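Renewal narrative, Specific Aim 1. Our central claim is that a sequence can be written position by position from structural information alone. The example that follows is taken directly from our test logs and has not been curated for this report. It begins with the structure tokens describing the chain, in the order in which they were read.
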């Protein structure tokens, strides 16, 4: 293990996060013109946080000077795993230093929820916080949406051939058919697409009635499928059908693989035609909307089918894309609708998107493997050709899919038991919903951590546990769990 190289890359990562804090501190200075007390407090907390983060980043970079730039697999997975944990620790500083002060557990939870685009919160009243701090909440979700490392690969030229290893461990993007020399070009295109969609979303929100500040914040948290809002009532604050429709469109765009947009930019129409995951995902959402809309109507929760469909549509897209914006208290919906929402929470969006969850491609692949194994039970000599999105997955992909699903279900059960043990006041639905919401990066859960409540009632130990669970889900288990293997840390 080349520890100095790891320190160098992590130092640069922290330095760039510190620059983001500095930009928000600049907005805090502007905020002082209209709200002197809140603006000064935000300038103080963000300024000190930026200084500390940049200072530690520079120290790490200096420790790694002269080590070369060859990032091997071990260094890559350590950089990814530790990078997200360090980002969460750095991002919590403004919540710790500024007022109203959050304790360490709450601040770390809020920060990790932002970077992992989970959207769960421990803040009861957003009106108490300076606008610059609310901007920082949106910025960390935007940074985490496409992936911190993916963004930094696009701007860090010294990473060289290590870019491939970093991106493979950090995101669910399929870059297997991308040449090593073109990884940074792909990362740059992803960044440009991400910025472009964010800007387009923000302009639309501004034209539809949001202030420029609200439009910028919500554009960042919409395309990143993060769900942090500047209002306590979330999107329900505006009660605007056109606004909901625009946000729904960009939540869907964020939940589809960004590599599809790269294929469109490169005019690879054959790959686009072979896409299965996005088609099945849209079909799943359409069926879920019709089912829940009808359920709300038939149980007299809505005065008509169309009204039930409208109520269901935004919530289903928000939950299935793991954004977590709210216009409805779905905890009051019939049992059938809530159970269906739980399933959508677990599935999440498409691989290579900003959405969380198990990802649609894994469910499709698992279903195809299951059908093949069932047929083999009575036709053992039949030869199958398994294909997904126009390509043939190798045996390692099949194994990783099965292992991932095992980790997902096992972790959900184990952590639910731990939360129930540490939080005896939570009922079964609340304990299970809290784990599901954090592990699959959704935001609001069910019951006492549902859409009209938050996680502020939980014990600090539970908040730390769920914060780590967020990272575990965002990095899809492997990049975090491997950090606990002693053999990883041995020197060459």
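The sequence written for that structure reads:
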């Amino acid at each position: 293990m080349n520890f100095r190289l790891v320190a160098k890359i992590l130092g640069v990562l922290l330095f760039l996060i510190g620059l983001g804090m500095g930009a928000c501190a600049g907005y805090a200075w502007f905020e002082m013109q209209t709200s002197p007390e809140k603006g000064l407090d935000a300038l103080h907390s963000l300024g000190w946080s930026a200084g500390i983060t940049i200072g530690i980043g520079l120290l790490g970079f200096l420790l790694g000077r002269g080590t070369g730039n060859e990032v091997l697999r071990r260094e890559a997975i350590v950089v990814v795993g530790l990078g997200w944990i360090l980002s969460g620790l750095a991002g919590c500083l403004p919540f710790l230093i500024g007022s109203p002060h959050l304790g360490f557990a709450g601040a770390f939870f809020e920060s990790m929820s932002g970077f992992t685009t989970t959207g769960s919160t421990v803040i009861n009243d957003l009106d108490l916080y300076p606008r610059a701090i609310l901007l920082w909440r949106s910025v960390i979700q935007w940074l985490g949406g496409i992936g911190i490392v993916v963004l930094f690969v696009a701007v860090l030229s010294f990473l060289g051939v290590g870019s491939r290893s970093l991106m493979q461990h950090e995101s669910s993007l399929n870059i297997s058919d991308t040449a090593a020399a073109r990884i940074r070009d792909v990362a740059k295109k992803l960044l440009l697409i991400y910025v472009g969609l964010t800007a387009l979303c923000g302009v639309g929100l501004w034209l539809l009635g949001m202030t420029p500040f609200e439009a910028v914040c919500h554009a960042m948290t919409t395309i990143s499928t993060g769900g942090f809002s500047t209002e306590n009532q979330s999107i329900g604050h505006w009660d605007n059908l056109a606004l909901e429709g625009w946000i729904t469109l960009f939540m869907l765009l964020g939940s589809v693989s960004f590599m599809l947009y790269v294929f469109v930019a490169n005019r690879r129409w054959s790959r686009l035609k072979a896409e299965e995951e996005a088609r099945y995902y849209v079909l799943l959402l359409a069926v879920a909307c019709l089912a829940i809309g009808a359920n709300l109507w038939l149980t007299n929760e809505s005065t008509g089918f169309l009204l039930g469909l409208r109520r269901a549509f935004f919530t289903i897209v928000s939950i299935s894309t793991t954004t977590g914006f709210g216009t409805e208290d779905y905890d009051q919906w019939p049992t059938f609708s809530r159970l269906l929402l739980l399933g959508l929470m677990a599935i999440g969006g498409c691989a290579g998107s900003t959405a969380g969850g198990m990802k649609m491609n894994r469910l499709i692949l698992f279903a195809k493997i299951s059908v093949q194994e069932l047929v083999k039970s009575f036709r053992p000599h039949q030869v199958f050709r398994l294909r997904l999105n126009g390509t043939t997955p190798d045996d390692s992909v099949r194994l990783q899919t099965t292992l991932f699903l095992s980790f997902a279900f096992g972790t959900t059960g184990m952590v639910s038991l731990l939360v129930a043990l540490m939080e005896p006041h939570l009922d079964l639905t609340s304990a299970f919903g809290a784990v599901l919401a954090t592990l699959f990066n959704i935001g609001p859960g069910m019951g006492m951590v549902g859409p009209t409540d938050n996680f502020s009632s939980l014990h600090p130990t539970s908040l730390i546990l769920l914060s780590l669970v967020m990272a575990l889900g965002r990095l899809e288990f492997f990049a975090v769990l491997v950090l606990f293997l002693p053999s990883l840390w041995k020197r060459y």
